[in-house]
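cron nightly-structures :: item 1 of 1
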Amino acid sequence: MTPDRYKVSAFGRQRLTGNIQKRGTRLGLPTWGGFAFGSLFVVAGGSITLAGTKIFPVNPTSVHAPYWVLTVVGISFVLGGFAVWSGAWRQFAANRRRQEAARRHPDEPALADYPWHPDGFTVSEWTGVTKAFAMAMFLTIFLSMFNWWAFGANGPWMVKGIVGLFDLVTLFVWLLAGRQLLRALKFGYSCVEFASFPFRLPEPVVIRWRPFGGISRVNKGTFTLRCVEERMERQGKAVSIVHDEIWSANWMVEQACSLQPREEVALRYELPADAQSTNLGAQNPLFWELEVKLDLPGLDFNETYLVPVYGLARTAAIAAGS
């Protein structure tokens, strides 16, 4: 399959929407703060769980709900603490890895920035299946106590309406998890292969995209290379991850075509003179990614891959300046 048309976006910086995947490793808290904050949830949740399972004795007159509800509350707190611990550990591991890579490869910032595989970047659909089903199960467990309050304890109609709405959201999350399972069964995994590692600014990016199954006929599609800045945005008390596209270019498939098993799609992108270098360890991480969106018979394909676009290695930069 060969794309038909190449186009550079003229929109400049714009907000990306859809499935935003956090790429940076920073929590917004010091690593010790993340572990301490998560510990509060784990200790509180563990205490409530012990009370709910009657391992830790409590005065029965002070318990105004079934013991299983207390257990669910406790488990929900513990899982929340584990999630914070997981983020803190990833930040700690990333910092240690960067320090070690900087020591072993002082002239190559790319290896200190991210654990790249020089040959390419592989994505497995099964990772998304695990996350989707974990989220669906967590919501189901978390809402079970509110369902008891609303329907088992005959709560007010307003509570029943709110809980019923969240039950519908949970059902939708289960449907999305099932859809992700079907995607994994169909596509398995895919990868991009790098013509060189890393790509040096301002040289062009030459990569090959390779699926490993599930695609034989493509109605149309786009292969988008973009530079993205990731930042945290606060709205009131809520904090969300925001991705801003700084620059992008597209290869487009405009005519229906066939794709042979394990066939490669070769792509070449000319970068602008002011292109920025990847920095995934920054406070506001900056990175390059390839997004592949294909309109297929049945389930469509939509996946993103990190691409190592960096400036000159330190030795080359020193030599150029001497």
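cron nightly-structures :: done
Helices lie at 31-52, 67-104, 109-113, 125-152, 157-187, 314-321.
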